[in-house]
Amino acid sequence: MSKKRIIKIVLAVIMVIGAAFFLSYMIFYNPSYSYSEVYNKYYKNLKDIDLAKGLTTEQKLEDFEYLYNTLQKNYPFFEVGKRKTGFDWLSRKEEFEKRIRETKNNIEFYNEIKRMVTLLQVAHARLVSPELFEMFKKALDMPITDGKMKELDPFQNPIIIKDYEYWKQNIKETTYILPIAFSYIEGKYVAIPYNKNESLEGYGIPEGSILLKVNELTSDEYVKSLMDKTFLNYDFKRNKIVKYKLYVFADTLGDTIKLTFLSPKGEAIEKTLKPVELVINQSALDKMPLVKSILVKDKVAYLKIPAMKISQKDIEKDGKEIYSFFKEIKNYPYLIIDIRGNGGGNLAYWVENVVQPLIDHSVKLS
Question: Who's near 266: CB < 8 A, 6+ residues apart?
Fold first, then answer.
C-alpha cells in the first residue's frame, strides 16, 4: 500500500496548511511550484482502492504513521502548542496508535484522525470533511483545461472525487449545541442569545449572566475539555485556554445539560437545557455586505470587510466595489480597514482587493 494513500482517504498530508484549498491555491496562484514537484509529492503514488470494503488495521496504522511522521518532520510549532495548552502532542503517539488500532470501521478511523488533528489546536489543521470539500470545489471554480495542470486539480481528480463521494455518503457531521452562547469578556463567559431573534429571558437567564459550570465542570475546565472537538483561543493576559465565542456541545438531541450561572444581581442560577442542531448558513456568510463610510469628510474613511470570501466570483464582485471606494477616497489621508470578526478565507481576496490597489511598488509574496 502506498504511503500517499492518506491523501485520498482524508487529504491529511496537506491539511496542516489548508488542505485542498492550499493545494489548489499554490498550484494555480504560485508558479514557483513546478508540475513535477507537486505531481511527485502528492499524485504519483495515488492508488485507487475500494473504501467500501473497509480499511484493514494494517492500512489504518500505515496511514497514521505517515501522517504522524509528516507532522513530526515538518510542523515547527509543537513546543509553542505545548506551552499554550499543556498538551504534548508528539508524546501521545502510543495513545493515538492504540485508538486507531481499536477502530472497528472507516467511520471510527475518520473520527480518530479528526480528533488527533484537532488536538494540534491549529486553526488550519483539520480534515477536509465532505462538506468542506464540496464548498471548496464550488468556490474555487477555476476550470483547468491544460492536460498536465488538470491532473493536479484535486477537484477534477477522479480518485479523489470518488473517495469523497464515499465519505459524503457515510460521514454525517451533525453538531448539537445548547440554544444559548457565551462571549468571553475579561476572563468571564457572558451569556448571549444563540439566535438574534431570541432572548435569554425565554430560558430564564438574566441578560449579562456569567457561566460558572457546565454540569460539574467549571467554565474553564469545560473549555479545556473541548481540545479534541474544536479550535480554542488563548488569553495571553491570563495565560489560559479560552473560547472567544463558546457553545456548549451535546452528543444527541435527547441530552440534557445543567448550567450554573451568576446573575448580574449576584445570585446563583441553575438551568437544565436541551440542545438544538447547529446550522451554519454559508451562503448567508458569503453574502455579508461590505460596509463603507466617510467618518470625517476629506479626512477619515472607513471600510469593514466581514469575510475574505473564497469564490473567485465573489472576490471579483467585491473587488469592483472596494476599488470604486478607494478611488472615491484616494486623497483622504486616513483609511480605517475593519476586519474584526473576519474569520479569514481566501488569501487572494486580500491580495487582489486590498493590497494591490493600495501599494505603489511591487511586493514579493512568499
Answer: none
Residues 121 and 81 sit within 8 Å (Cβ to Cβ): yes
8-state DSSP, 345 = B
335 burial via Cβ count (<10 Å: 0-12, 13-18, 19+): middle
Torsion of CA 325, 328, 330, 331, to 10 degrees: -140
Q: Hunting for cell 470501521 — which residue is that?
A: 105
pLDDT above 70: percentage of residues in the chain? 85
Q: Determine the topology of domain 176-277 in CATH.
A: Pdz3 Domain (2.30.42)
Three cell numbers, residue 295: 467618518
Q: Cβ of 125: how many Cβ atoms within 10 Å?
A: 20
How is residue 293 written as a grid cell?
Answer: 463610510
Chain centroid to Cα 337, Å, comes to: 23
Q: Count of residues for the chain?
A: 366
Quick: pLDDT tens for 329-365.
999 999 999 998 787 888 889 999 999 999 888 877 6
Separation CA 118–CA 282 (nearest Å): 22
pLDDT in tens, 179-207: 999 999 999 999 998 877 788 988 999 98
- DSSP H helices in 246-360: 282-286, 312-328, 347-350, 356-358
Q: In this structure, is the dihedral angle defined by the CA atoms of residues 91, 95, 98 and 99, taken in order, positive or negative?
A: negative
Asked if the model's pLDDT at residue 253 lies above 90, the reply is: yes
* Among the listed residues 270, 337, 331, the one whose alpha carbon sits nearest the alpha carbon of residue 308: 337
Closest residue by Cα to residue 131 from 178, 177, 169, 176: 169
Helices (H) and strands (E) in the chain, counts: 15, 15
| 209 close to 261: Cβ distance less than 8 angstroms | yes
- Provide CB contacts within 8 A for 313, sequence distance 6+: 141
Report, in angstroms and rounded to the nearest whole number, the Rg of the chain calculated over CA atoms. 23
Amino acid at 277: E
Return the domain boundaries, the chain. Answer: 5-170, 176-277, 284-358
**Helix, strand, or coil here: 366?**
coil
CA-closest candidate to residue 184, choices 234, 240, 225, 242: 242
**Type of residue found at 202:** G
Looking only at the bridges linking them, the beta strands covering 240-242 and 233-235 are antiparallel
